[in-house]
Amino acid sequence: MLIRLAAVAGLALTAVPTFGQQIYDIWATTWDRSSLFTYTNLSPNPINFGSPGAIGQADITINEDTLAQAMVGHGATLTDSSALILNNLKARGVWQNQNSNNYWSILNTLFDPTDGANAAGLSYLRVPLGASDFSANVYSFDDVSGDTSLSNFDINKAPSYLFSVINDIRGINPYLKVHILPWSPPGWMKDSGTMNGGNFNSAYTSVYANYLLKSLQGFQSHGISVYAIGIQNEPENSNPTYPTCKISASQEAQIGSALRTLMNANGFSGVRIVGYDHNWNDAAGYPVQLMDDAASAFSGVAFHCYSGNFTQQDSFHNAFPSKEVYFTECTGEYGSDWWGDIKWYMENIFIGSVTHSSKNGLMWNLALDGNGNPKLPGTSSCGTPCRPVVQVNSDGSFVYHQEFYAMAQAGKAILPRDVNGPFGQRLHLTIGGARAQGLIATAFVTGRVNPSDWNRYSLVVLNWDDRPDGTWNPTPIQTTIEFRDAQATYTFPIGVTTLWWYAPSTSFDVSEAQEDGKQEALEVEAEGRKGAQKAKAQGEKKPFTAWVHADVNGERQRPIELAFL
């Protein structure tokens, strides 16, 4: 099936719709902030799909035949500082009766996944194990030097408000996925003797694996189910001013293998181990070596934005197409351009990284104050203050920053349509036409709990063509949507637009995106990272199956096993 968008001169088509699909729901954030995650319901005059006509300024074609990765939700990191800021706001409401609703207003706006809610529905939360550069002090869960039995391990070295805020969020969003990982092992497991900088000592491999298992158990004791755990944040970074640690790919592989064994034996077989968690620039190096050494231990790897570019994710994905790709950190800085940031985030993370196989997109701190505080005393990180998703001021007022609007627009397209339904699954697309350079986009299909209900098809479109003639001239792009040989028209303003419509499911089902949102691997790997092979035929020859590869805009896509009757 092909869905095509093409720009023409009118908003609505005169042809009678052939399938009954209609666009009613539109969310928009525009460059001039006249719309900020603003919802428009087009009833009683929806945009109808009718007979195809001429294409116009832009032409977006979506290939519905093959599905890419299932999404798991966007989000941010709940550092100790973020939890403190939010908890203080909650306490202000309880004890001082000032801005008493602001805490819950923020959490609901950030995390409520309810279909139709005026909320971003963020569904992925990254949480440091122990101190980071956004903690009040340096600590691990066992700072007793040489305690290889970990008899002094105490998950409650983390501030109590960290767990209470997580559980408040879980109460709002039942789909919340919690991803935990340390910024450093305990200092006594390193050559530096401190959590601030240094290198991991391999003699503590089994001890550290047990430390991570106890961290999982500690979160469980607070009622928090963990979706994924990492070995080390940014393992190629050592900074003596805040918790960091260099851990080589071979060391991480050994730790991951030991941890996987412990997890499987202790009731955590369903928890993912996600490796690397560092920059794009080494995508072909560290994470590939990690899979070469211990592919069975790791579900996949995660990337950050601080060096390289999102297309480098392909180096890893092409080597290990059945492994998962996550994007877990990028920060904005105070003083940057609002619209420029929106464009960058969409191009590089919420459309770019996702188009190149990422299952999510995360920003750094969820909440800080207007100066990017509180930070760990003495840290050199965020020399230009890091900007959070939401800024909470000392008087209890708050501001949602550009990070929020980018994530909210992208997140609306992938949230479950039904209670306990699946998240969206990415569809492939190409863009052509005279003004093709003005749009970048991604598309998703969201399955339904009741298979007789129509699936939801969503588009996230960035119109960034604010200088079509080389000078500042923000110009909308008239675009037609062509879906299953039917066509509708919409004019995309300069900004980000999310829209959707409904259609019957095709013979290619999306049910594999249900349950935990994980797309089952549709390929087998031969000899490590030599690519996917054709699957061995099973049973009778009916139906006939074949491995199909797509190439979209030069991007090699995930192979899909299709059944032909």
Keywords:
single chain; 565 residues; alpha/beta; 10-stranded antiparallel sheet; 8-stranded parallel sheet; 21% helix; globular; disordered N terminus; disordered C terminus
Describe this structure in words.
The structure is a single chain. The chain is of the alpha/beta class. The protein is built from ten helices and 31 strands. The strands form eight sheets. A ten-stranded antiparallel β-sheet has the order 4-3-25-22-21-20-6-1-23-24, covered by helices on one side. An eight-stranded parallel β-sheet has the order 13-12-11-10-9-8-7-15. Helix 3 links the parallel strand 8 (124-129) and strand 9 (177-182).
Shape: globular
Q: Roughly how much helix do the residues carry, as a percent range?
A: 10-25%
Average predicted confidence as pLDDT:
88
Strand order of the largest sheet: 4-3-25-22-21-20-6-1-23-24
Q: Count every beta strand, where a strand is a DSSP E run of 2 or more residues.
A: 31
Rg, alpha carbons: 24 Å
Derived structural class: alpha/beta
Low-confidence stretches: 1-19, 507-565
The termini sit apart by: 17 Å
Counting DSSP H or I runs of 4 or more residues, the number of helices is: 10
Content of β-strand:
25-35%
Which sheet architecture does the biggest sheet show?
Answer: 10 strands, antiparallel
Give the structure's gist in a few sentences.
With 565 residues, the protein is α/β, with parallel strands linked by helices. Helix content is 21%, strand content 26%.
Give the helices and strands, then pairings.
Layout (H helix, E strand, L loop, with lengths): L1 E5 L15 E2 L1 E6 L7 E4 L5 E2 L10 E12 L4 E3 L2 H17 L5 H10 L12 E6 L30 H13 L4 E6 L22 H17 L6 E2 L19 H17 L6 E8 L6 H9 L5 E5 L8 H7 L4 E6 L2 E2 L4 H13 L1 H4 L6 E4 L1 E2 L17 E2 L2 E3 L5 E3 L1 H11 L12 E8 L6 E8 L8 E9 L13 E7 L2 E7 L2 E9 L20 E2 L6 E2 L10 E5 L2 E2 L2 E2 L3 E5 L1
Parallel strand pairs: 7-8, 7-15, 8-9, 9-10, 10-11, 11-12, 12-13, 16-18
Antiparallel strand pairs: 1-6, 1-23, 2-5, 3-4, 3-25, 6-20, 14-17, 18-19, 20-21, 21-22, 22-25, 23-24, 26-27, 28-31, 29-30
